[in-house]
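hi! just following up on the protien thing from before. the input was this:
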Amino acid sequence: MRILGVILAGGLATRMGGGDKPLRPIAGRPMLEHLVERLRPQVDALLLNANGDPARFAGYGLPVAADPVPGNPGPLAGILAGLDHAADRQFDWVLTCPGDTPFIPPDLASRLHAACRQAGTPIARASSGGRDHPPVALWATRLRDALRAAIDDGERQPRRFANTQGCATVEWDVSSGDPFFNANTLEDLDR
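and the predicted 3d structure came back as:
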């Protein structure tokens, strides 16, 4: 089993006033740095999905892939970028995390993969506090063509696409904080 970790950073960050959310600091370091540190031990390789000039991420030593479809259609385009990259390099799975989720758990990949095996599904997504996090998911690389067709047909929702393909959900405990906290606003960063 080979897993490609994909950090989704292709959004416009409109609720935060624009710019690259993953480069905003939390606890004195960019969110991206926290996320890379937590993801790297769980996957065989990492990819950053980001649009625009990739040079702004050069200090992280990650390959950067832009959305393969125009018009900033949302996280499904970033997931497709990851699936394209994975298929070209013989990865079996893609683990996706938004670039604004700096505290992902160390057992994310293993628990999602176990859920896929147990349920017989090609996708497993994370949940915490009773709330699903559709972009935090493990995707079988073989879904690439189905996802491209869904995007071409206008699909923009990871949850809806995952549900059409078969998706397991794995719940994480939030008693010591939500491991899937995501910073969407400047107030979230302060918190």
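Strands lie at 3-8, 25-26, 29-30, 45-49, 64-65, 93-98, 123-128, 131-140, 167-172.
The first strand starts at residue 3 and ends at 8.
cheers
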